[in-house]
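We modelled the chain as a single entity of 229 amino acids. Its sequence is:
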Amino acid sequence: MVGRGNVDELPSERKSYPDVKIFRKGVWHEARHPLQDPDDPVFSMNADRIGGVSPGLSFARSMRNATGLSVGLLLCAKGGAGIGAWEREGDLYRTMMDRFREASTVRRLEGALIYLGEGDTRSMEAAGAWIKSFHRLVGNLRADFSNQALPIVFAQIASISQERRTRREHGYAGWERLKQLQAEINLPNVVMVKTDDLPLKSDGLHLSASAAEILGQRFAAAFLGMEAL
């Protein structure tokens, strides 16, 4: 969700969107790529300084266009963090809740977007453990946000280039297994969107800028589809 797309690949009119806001340092600011601000890291204990084009702004733009309502983003992504880093007792989860409590004084949380899994494919065992962790994360979010029907849209992990797949030091043995397990998730008000048809960057792993924007549109379509049910 941090995004790794090259910002320079986007036309200037798609690098910011005045009607979309992002919460930083206790203030709602105009959102622009990259959403991750290296001078105001989401998690100060481990700053992520290589944010790029993510699906967040495209999602918010699509929601704004479809509903006519103001949309605010509360970025809580941390690049490279596996799902195990999002246990309720961990620093990432606690910091997310702190930011939520601060932001929710003027806005209401309407849903959550999740894109996690690449770091959990190092083995078949790690991939298999992802599902229980995901179920627990959904339950914790809904309990702590006091909304048992909170809409959650998550992205299935994308494709991976053959060259990247064969680089032994990265070890993606559980990649296809995790994709299969993610596709089998069946929880109320939880929808998966596919990403494996989207173009990758030259690193053979991360989504390109255009792919991140398409993913954001898919997130919005899935979210709006849940509202229509």
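As a brief sanity check on the tokenised model: The mean pLDDT is 88. Strands lie at 16-24, 27-32, 71-73, 112-114, 152-155, 190-193.
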